[in-house]
Amino acid sequence: MSRLLDSADFALLLISAVSLIAGLPFVMSGNGAVAHALWTAGTLPVLLALLVSVVKALRRQEAGVDVLALLAIGFALCLSEFLTAAVIALMVASGRALEQYAEQRARREMTALLSRAPRQANRFEAGEWRRVELDTVRPGDPLLVRNGEFVPVDGSLAGHAQLDESTLTGESVIRQRSPGESVSSGVVNVGAAFEMIAAASAGDSTFAGIVRMVESAQHERSPATRLADRFALLFVLAALVLAGRSWLATGDVVRALAVLVVATPCPLILAVPVAVVSGMSRCARRGVLVKGGGALERLARASVLFFDKTGTLTGGYARLVSIETAPGASPETVLRFAASLGQASAHVISESVTTAARERDLVLAAPRQVVEQPGAGVQGEVEGHTVAIGSFAFVSSLATPAPWSAAFLQRVAYEGASAVFVGVDGAMMGALQMADQIRLETPRALRLLRREGIGRFVMLTGDRRDVAETVGAMLGVTEVMPEQTPSDKLEAIRAARRGGTVIMIGDGINDAPALAAADVGVAMGARGAAASSEAADVVLLVDRLDRLVEGVRVARQTRRIALQSVMAGMALSFAAMAVAAFGFLPPLLGAILQEIIDIAVIANALRVLRIRSTETVGSLSHRDADHLKTEHLELGPVMDRIRELADKLPRMPVTSVAGALALVNEMLEGQLVPHERRDDLEVYPGVARLVGGEDPLAAMSATHREIFRVTRLLRQMTENVPPQGPDAAGLSEFQRLLYGLDAIVRLHCAQEDELFHSLEEGR
């Protein structure tokens, strides 16, 4: 509002209003000459501003709809309709001020983003912390960020930090970050002062790139705005023709003046820019940075979605899927040995193995005498044992290959995963199946995008055909195009553009050409590759695919509201012009009526700011969501034990089956069943209220009942095993129940994870 008060449009509004009001007492006292002089004085500045606007528009070869207002005021002054001229001037000035206010309000989130750009940093030099200009900061510089300050550049933390990352993500929650974690410029320190090491200069940091994108977006005019200009030209011609015909038909120039008055200014020009900027602002509030009105317009028309697999549909990092063990070894032992040795390796797979062990609260030992062979594996000593982890070729050169290795490798290949073999003291103890798992929000995001009108989903990936088709089948995508090079992706997108508006979403440097070639390029995450972010039209500042759904939804509703405003405004203006042409609407009332139309049009366009980007009734707090996820991680060993026993039953001595089943039953009764019962009685009622509806979790509760049925049946059958062990039929039935229980529990946990993830606060 302060900017509006300082603007020239507000000054024009003030001058025209004061002069109009000041002239009224002179008219009532019979001194009309003074009133006419005051009204003329208040009208001339507006007339001059309109003349400048028309000339500038014509130089840009754009439709100068201000010409209607210019002609209306000019005609009124020539016809000595001084009061009418003053009212038209007031209406024009108020319309300009109202439009500027509306655009300023619509740009609020984007302008706030720009205003938060860091300017200085605290750098350690000459034995003290000194305030320096941001441009002087270089990678490797030690920096201090005090409470309330913005992180000046991208870097890594040297200590713990509490950060408000809402500037980048749109999530107004406090994040706890640990030493070694990366931190992006532009986030706010809301805790104690912390030290960090700069990893980039100011110009190469995340926030600087976002600022450049926002500045570019604020200066771009969308196709909808250019389309509005073309319609406006037709509108101007129609208004001039109607005014001229009414004058020629009746000889009454006042009728022509009235027609011009109600055509001033054109609602078409007011509605589209305000709606488009409001839509961009609404997207920015949710962490979807749209670089311009053109991108927003194309996003609204999109019907085809191309996407990369790794880092887009999947998380981009490996997770532990299952553990294969040799006879006599437990999954926990295999994982603990692998993770203990993996602590000494910086390889991403080693980090994932270590993370999986810590998620299961395993106590890791410090490795010694570690030797790493890059790209193959690591060997060393853990608690006095010689341990090796890595590829099958690497571990088998140091440990005797196990009989189950070939089958395990075959299964891993089918599922498109990777294998980490574990050798201990010259024997292959086990293997870990690692996979880049599908993002929790991916299935839901694709379902919602299909509901928003995206009819064709194409996965472009450089992965093998079997891996790509496995992922595609899981997600139900329309087409899978595997083994694609960057040039292949480019050609596929160019071909698809001939049949519709294409969105391409990716996160890597190799995706940049495809992002640039698509009608709408979408880059995943502000921390992704700079090349992909620069090539993209839309950047998801939050690393979640479902934010694209919100962007598409806002874009389509923005377009619909803009068109509603345009059609309604033009229809009302044409109706008013027709009434004025027949002599039933005098110029003075026409000016007032047109102002009402303009206000209604702008108010309708501003509805874009109130678009609901999500249909969720409520949300889970981060604390509750993390607690629920932790409980599922704690069930990991239970699920591993179920599958392990199912695999080993045919090879076990029949006399040992009852004891093994009893141990599994004990885990089920002690951990799985209480967990599922607690979810059904305590967690689901609260989640149901968040989701909404009569009984939204009925199907999920039915899965609980099936888990209870199978575990009870398994316990009863175990109690009835004869001392000599089960026969072949009984053994087969036990194996069937265990495999079925494993599949149900894993699927159920995955469904719950997806649900809890979608309801998490600030998503």
Automatic annotation (TrEMBL):
Pfam families: E1-E2_ATPase (PF00122), Hemerythrin (PF01814), Hydrolase (PF00702). It is found in: Cell membrane; Membrane. Residues 625-757 form the Hemerythrin-like domain. GO terms for cellular component: plasma membrane. It catalyses: Zn(2+)(in) + ATP + H2O = Zn(2+)(out) + ADP + phosphate + H(+). Keywords: ATP-binding, Cell membrane, Membrane, Metal-binding, Nucleotide-binding, Translocase, Transmembrane, Transmembrane helix. Its EC number is 7.2.2.12. Gene3D superfamilies: Calcium-transporting ATPase, cytoplasmic domain N, Calcium-transporting ATPase, cytoplasmic transduction domain A, HAD superfamily/HAD-like, nmb1532 protein domain like. GO terms for molecular function: ATP binding; ATP hydrolysis activity; cadmium ion transmembrane transporter activity; metal ion binding; P-type zinc transporter activity. The chain crosses the membrane at residues 7-27, 33-55, 67-93, 231-248, 254-277, 561-585. Residues 117-215 form the P-type ATPase A domain. SUPFAM superfamilies: Calcium ATPase, transduction domain A, Calcium ATPase, transmembrane domain M, HAD-like. This is P-type Zn(2+) transporter. It comes from Caballeronia zhejiangensis.
